[in-house]
Every structure is written in structure tokens, then in C-alpha cells.
Design goal:
It comes from Elysia marginata. GO terms for molecular function: catalytic activity; metal ion binding. The protein has nine helices and ten strands. 34% of the residues lie in helices and 15% in strands.
């Protein structure tokens, strides 16, 4: 059904190619297939000058207006450059907009401002990101969707291990709900692939709360792929070295996108 890359105990490695080992550089690498340490070396709210794979897809006639992104972290409008790309990005504490909001979207819009602000306005709770994404998918049937959850990272930074584990379990359930939905919707059924990865790793031992170039091992990551068009390699136990650039390459293959 799919493939899991990055079990280093089996000799399979996935690493970042950027030398920063934190979020904005990591997401840029995932979205563009390459590092840009010269221009992206902070988490500042600067619009990404690099064109992401999402933007390139949105420029294709068959996909124009059918790409959307959702994220718990507030920087995704900048990383995806929603102003230039024209891709709708619901991230941070943004709400659902439009004249055709569902009852659930209206409810989420009311509840989000009243939710517990655990992460100092930089990220909302993942349940809102997931809820907005699910409703948009059901209503609009976009062809390409990006969703980013954040609670595991945020709770890790605060050293809240039990909350970290609970958040990881919650994300598993959210992915399960997404998969079950697309397999029961004729628009998506047997035509949809999921690619799951992370923007950076974490340190070992008492360094598990940190990441960045000063934290060894936090450039070690993983990639999971499953669904239509994905090679069924299972948990890959072959000695291989991969980088998160593999995400863009896989998307290009799935959508038959040729480099110009």
C-alpha cells in the first residue's frame, strides 16, 4: 500500500539538506526540493521568493484554483507566498471565509477565538486546522491539499512529553479520518496519495526538546507515502540515503509534471 523511509536502524536514512534544521528552512526544502540557506535562515515573516511545488501545480491548467493549504503555524502564508501564488492558505488564527460557509465552518470560526491560546498566538490547536481542512475538502474537492499540524513540535519545545504523545496519537486519528473520507468519496477514491513528512528532527536524550544546527541529529527525518501511484515497499530496509527533496520528486511523478 505504501512506503516508509527513514528507519536508520535498518540502514535507511532521510536527512535535511539545509544546514539550519528548523522550521522555515525545512518547509522551504519540502516545498521546493532544495535548500536555500542564503535567503532562508530564520523563522521571520518574510514572503518566500522561491516558487513552491504547490504554486507550480496551481499554474497548470488542470489544477488552477484546485490547490489549497492549511496549517496550525502562522507562517504558512509567507512560506507558500499566498499573495503571489494565489493559493488559499488557512493558517495560524485565520478563519474560513466566503459566502458559502458550512455550519461546521461557521462553528469553527466562532470557537477558534475562544480556544486556549497555548502557543502565544503563533499556532492554533491542530483540531481547528484539521476541521477547516476537512470541511474545505468536502465542499470544494480540491485536487491538491497541504495540511500541517504543529502540536507535537510545540509541546516538545515545552518538554511536555505526555502532551506530545497525546498530540501524536491525535494526528494519527486525524490522518485516519482523512484517509477513510477520501476512500469513501467518489472524487478521491483510489485516485489519492498521501505524503507525510516533517520539517526537522529533534535531539536525543535530554536534547529531545530542541532542534537546530546546535542540536546533533535534528537533521534526521522520515517520509511516509501511501495511496494511488505509490510504490508498495513497506518499511524500507535497504541501505539508502534520501533527502526531503524526494517529496517534490514524488509529487512530480504522481502528477506527471515535467521540468521546463
Amino acid at each position: 500500500m505504501g512506503s516508509i523511509y527513514g528507519n536508520r536502524y535498518l540502514g535507511n536514512k532521510v536527512n535535511l539538506s539545509n544546514s539550519m534544521w528548523f522550521s522555515y528552512p525545512g518547509y522551504n526544502e519540502i516545498f521546493t526540493g532544495k535548500a536555500d540557506d542564503k535567503n532562508i535562515n530564520s523563522n521571520d515573516k518574510n514572503y518566500n521568493q522561491n516558487k513552491t511545488i504547490l504554486e507550480k501545480i496551481n499554474e497548470l491548467p488542470d489544477y488552477k484554483g484546485h490547490v489549497a493549504a492549511f496549517g496550525s503555524w502562522e507562517l504558512f502564508p509567507f512560506i507558500i507566498n499566498d499573495k503571489r501564488s494565489g493559493i488559499p492558505v488557512n493558517a495560524g488564527y485565520r478563519t474560513a471565509i466566503g459566502n458559502d460557509l458550512t455550519d461546521i465552518e461557521k462553528y469553527l470560526n466562532r470557537m477558534q477565538p475562544m480556544s486556549h491560546n497555548l502557543f502565544h498566538n503563533s499556532a492554533r490547536l491542530d483540531i481547528f486546522t484539521h476541521g477547516y481542512a476537512m470541511e474545505y475538502i468536502k465542499k470544494k474537492h480540491p485536487k491538491v491539499v497541504y495540511i500541517s499540524y504543529a502540536q507535537t513540535d510545540n509541546f516538545s519545545h515545552s518538554g511536555a512529553y505526555s502532551s506530545y504523545l497525546h498530540s501524536a496519537h491525535s494526528i494519527d486519528n486525524m490522518l485516519k479520518e482523512l484517509w477513510e473520507y477520501v476512500q469513501n468519496d467518489s472524487f478521491y477514491k483510489d485516485k489519492t496519495a498521501f505524503i507525510i513528512t516533517t520539517d526537522h528532527g529533534r535531539g536525543l536524550g535530554d536534547k529531545w526538546t530542541s532542534h537546530g544546527r546546535e542540536t546533533p541529529k535534528s537533521n534526521e527525518v522520515w517520509v511516509i507515502m501511501y495511496g494511488a501511484g505509490i510504490k508498495a515497499r513497506g518499511e524500507v530496509n535497504k541501505s539508502e540515503q534520501h533527502y526531503t527533496s524526494m517529496v517534490v520528486e514524488e509529487i512530480k511523478q504522481l502528477l506527471n509534471i515535467k521540468d521546463k
